[in-house]
Design goal:
Strand content: 35-45%
CATH topology: Ribosomal Protein L25, Chain P
Number of helices: 2
CATH architecture: Beta Barrel
Strand order of the largest sheet: 1-14-15-16-12-13-2
Oligomer: single chain
Number of strands: 16
């Protein structure tokens, strides 16, 4: 609750997938208004650049989605946070069949991302490809995979309970340009991802490094694990 009250909301894409909005002008750039913290009226707002080519999370697109998947898929419309409604029209793959790019169209009447009476269940975060900053993101998790690491069968060692994913380093992340001014000790909420702080030792203006301190719940991942 303390972090929720203090953290500046920003957009960061940890596993980027390129989105091209085919009916958006190639040379156009808009500045979208974004609230810094909905819990703090005094936190103000900032401008986020929006352009024809964006990055979204790889996990926010599925070519053949199951039921109750409310993110982007062919023919489905979603809301881009602070921006427009978009609909996926095409999927581009490489020679191995891996999805490398998705094409969408946008509705210019939906600027701001909320239209009364229009039901869109999925809201995605994004960054402009031309304006995004490169960053390394370190995802810290529990050191042990069980609550009591000493609880092991006779003849076994507590080290067997170490969590192999206690640290995951992502080197090709894309973050919004406002984070060029990020300072050590300031908490940030990467929308839909968790709470992060700038690494005071390793981060440089040319190579930003952020550490996750607390994760957020992922409703789809939770549902997928149940299945």
């Amino acid at each position: 609750e303390d972090l929720n009250a203090r953290a500046t909301r920003v957009m960061a894409v940890l596993n980027p997938l390129k989105m091209v909005i085919t009916n958006y002008p190639e040379d156009r750039v808009e500045e979208m208004d974004a609230i810094n913290n909905p819990e703090d009226e005094n936190a103000g707002s900032r401008k986020i650049p929006f352009s024809r080519e964006l990055y979204i999370e790889q996990d926010d697109f599925m070519e053949t989605p199951p039921k109750k998947y409310f993110r982007l898929s062919p023919g489905k419309e979603v809301r881009l946070k602070h921006a427009y409604y978009v609909t996926c029209t095409d999927v581009i793959k490489d020679e191995t069949g891996k999805i490398v790019e998705i094409h969408c169209t946008y509705d210019p009447e939906t600027r701001g991302g909320w239209i009364a009476g229009r039901k869109v269940k999925g809201t995605l975060h994004w960054v402009s490809a031309a304006h995004a900053l490169d960053a390394e993101v370190r995802l810290y998790d529990h050191l042990f995979a069980v609550e009591n690491p000493e609880d092991v069968p006779e003849g076994h060692d507590y080290k067997e309970n170490l969590n192999p994913n206690s640290l995951v380093v992502l080197k090709n992340c894309k973050v919004e340009p406002s984070l060029a001014e990020a300072t050590a000790g300031t908490p940030y909420q990467f929308l839909r991802q968790g709470y992060f702080c700038l690494d005071s030792k390793d981060s440089t203006p040319e190579r930003l490094v952020f550490n996750r301190t607390v994760s957020l719940k992922d409703s789809w991942a939770k549902m997928k694990n149940k299945g």
